[in-house]
Predict the 3D structure of the following.
Amino acid sequence: MLELSGVSKRVGRDNHISDVSLTFERGSINVLLGPTLAGKTTLMRLMAGLDKPTGGEIRIDGKSVVGLPVRKRNVAMVYQQFINYPGFTVYENIASPMRLAKVDRATLDRKVKEAARILKLEPYLDRMPLELSGGQQQRTAIARALVKGAELVLLDEPLANLDYKLREELRVELPRIFAETGAVFVYATTEPQEALLLGGHTATMSEGRITQFGNTIDVYNRPADLSTAQIFSDPPLNVVNVTKRGRELTFGEISLGQASDTSLTDDRYVAAVRPHHLSLVPGGRHSVAVTATVGTSEITGSETFIHVSVGGNRWVVLTQGVHRVNSGEVITVYMDPATLYLFTEQGMLVQAPEFAGIGG
Amino acid sequence: MIIRSWGIVMITKTINQKAWLLVLPVLLVVSLNAIIPLMTVVNYSIQDTFSPGVFFFEGTKWYQEVLSSPRFHSALGRQLLYTGIILLIEIPLGVAVALAMPRKGPWVSVCLVLMALPLLIPWNVVGAMWNIFALPDIGLLGYGLNWLGFDYNYTQQPLAAWFTIILMDVWHWTSLVVLLAYAGLSSIPDAYFQAAKIDGAGSFAVFRYIQLPKMKRVLIIALLLRFMDSFMVYTEPFVLTGGGPGNSTTFLSIDLVKAAIGEFNLGIAAAMSILYFLMTLLVCWVFYTVMMRGEDS
Amino acid sequence: MAQIKIDRLAHSYYAKPETEEDFALKEMDYLWDDGGAYALLGPSGCGKTTLLNIISGLLVPSRGRIIFDNVDVTTKTPEERNIAQVFQFPVIYDTMSVAENLAFPLVNRGIDRSEVGRRVKDMLETLELSAKANHKARGLTADEKQKISLGRGLVRYDVNAILFDEPLTVIDPQMKWQLRTKLKELHERFEHTMIYVTHDQTEALTFADKVVVMYEGEVVQIGTPAELFERPRHTFVGYFIGSPGMNILPCEIEGNKAFVAGHSVDLGANYGPVDGARLELGVRPEFVRFTEGVEAGIPVSLVSVDDVGRHRIVKVRLAQHEMNVIVPEGRALPDKLAVVFDAERCGVYANSHLLEPEDFDNQVVGYRDDY
């Protein structure tokens, strides 16, 4: 178990990490999700012991490890760049941490072969890393991290330099591989889709702070605040400032239907709706119509992204199928008030859609 | 772990306090061979001695004497002129050669080896080689120049001596600038050149806006190294001309040795050494801070 | 702006290519319409960047010609071709300000100063960079730098084409959306011919009117995003486009029915007998659903469920074959799993190539089946 309590890192006058408290269980996948420069890599370096926090405690299984050198910790790391020993074969690359640990030959051979099987590297064991494709090189690096038997495995955007399709495949495979080893896995990424596919737990990061930590799908469905919701939305979240009067939510002249929570005080709020909850056809009897001006549209073949302007706000509508709309055209977009998120002006969640948590 | 990208370099920075223990032997060696002699020199520069073990405190007397001596002024003047000429020739020439070298293919290694050759020759050997090479009666260069109709004799003409010393230094050290500049050039991604071509940039614009900015860091290092080396130059001119004819090629370090060993003016020589050391240090520091200003990423 | 024609083009990085395998780009012909938005899509090493570099003039092809508006430019330099290119990693001139960066291509072409100033000002507004006009370019974020790279092409109003080499690689997901829509707007406004190379299907499909799918140096299919999604002509296209890709199940065909592991699947059309070919049924996860109530379907067993927010990807096993089913948000999984395929959306593949229905004389010869 890895515990961080009140961890912070100051460099000069800048707070790179502020007051981070997290607990990661053994055998769990923990995603650090946030944009570039949110502090994901810095936090991982603190966990690994490459840097020393300027405040707070880091404990592994209850014992403080602050100040313990990396060499004495049982940590493995995988980077965005494919880092292997170029002069060693794939077999020797995977075996290298065990050679250092003086593992006996039979165990070493068994473990290397097992890791190679899991990561589908068996045909390449005798090759040199530079003769392999990017995906195979990165799988070699991951295999090496796995056989090390580390209690903490840190992966810093490991798939960012790989092809889209390969990424898709590895995202599905990785959670299964991780689950087998029983280590604590920490995985940094900028992509919401990646976090969702990996599952496990997610900590969303923004400007050196953890904005929320919990089950990945729960964080997605019930973001505690606006910045978490925005980090965890791809395509971007549609946001609008609204005024609540009685049960009615309005912005300008436009009504956004009724707030589901009657206990909310009349005030100004920030309403947000995910792009796939907007549609071009009324979805039910509660559907609210909103007039929008089309900016551009993008067709993927299965879906259409329509970028619109709603009362001066930039929104994205994600609809199934192919819809042709022209720039400047005025269209009606429908939304179900039940899918609406409401945040206070300070950004705290006060209302989330009902559907959160069906299935799984 | 092999470091393949700049992003990874930071890994090597750890918080291990034991690192200090590992540095300790080096600190000891450095203190033995640099700090202790330096302190001795400081000691000599503020005292006078007539017989072994007998010292008188003289305060800043030697310093005042050195600073007001015309001999020191002219040696310093020669030194600055020499260093200035060296830098003015070697840096642009080195960059030009680096630009002309091939980027890819089998010729790259040939060029690199040829470039490295002069750097592998010991300094006194370089001096001796040029001493013979430039002799007007038997040296190829000296004989050749006279045969072409130039009246050239570096052992008697100050101008010829200067010409020879500078030519020798350029021959010996331009390679260093070439290699550094070449390393800087090779680190520029192809996309920059392609983009510049597409933007319609001519070769001067490419140099001015891509190559020069990207070479800036290595050129600063080259400039610093060449400044320090040429400012403290001793062996090669000493072997070649011995500071002559007359005092025309007596640079600071040669003058210093003359004062210390030839004339046994230990106090003067020590004060000169300290001034010399401080000048080098000051120039390097000023230079480095000015060049690195606004350079962060 | 120009129409670009590729005439019997092939390229090998070897000086004397001997076999077909030596070619990074196998022989192809194509016509790119003036003002179109095209994407070259494929995995690493498929030859898409080679093709782009040949079009831009950074590479001279081993064989064939490139024609811009009836002018043969095969051996012309990028500058002579008058094209612009945006690279994977932002290329900016560090020592210049944002405005100077944008002015650079114009100054190089000797355009007079007032005109340069006017165009740069206009471009700064278009790119929403006016506030940073006098900032040094090196302090900018990755997406701003990429905008500048693009802007340097757009300020030259007369460029024949703008080429993009995976321009969003280093951009964060949120910024990708903004930059992509900007690109789309600019295309609509300036109507340049644009060619965009990427391995990311979302980028390719959303950007382009027509997508060229490449694999191992060959063009596998060219089509609109909808065509590629709905009627992939090759199983590779089915797999490569869509997330997750198309389910490919070995089958047998009889008239308008396919048999997968003994279970009958209705097809939207009749297929003639095909001799000796390896037959597969292709159906996208979006067009497979679980049965409800007493409806009949093919029984499957559950392998895994991934909740990706707006829908769930359910992996199931049909006999020995694994396949994906997409279940919309808010719909629960039944206890007993059985699947139904949308008959209209099923394709039949013979040796990996799409089979046209009602084609009784179909002779399957010479198909490559190594994809």
Observations:
- Residues 150 and 322 of chain A are 48 Å apart (CA to CA).
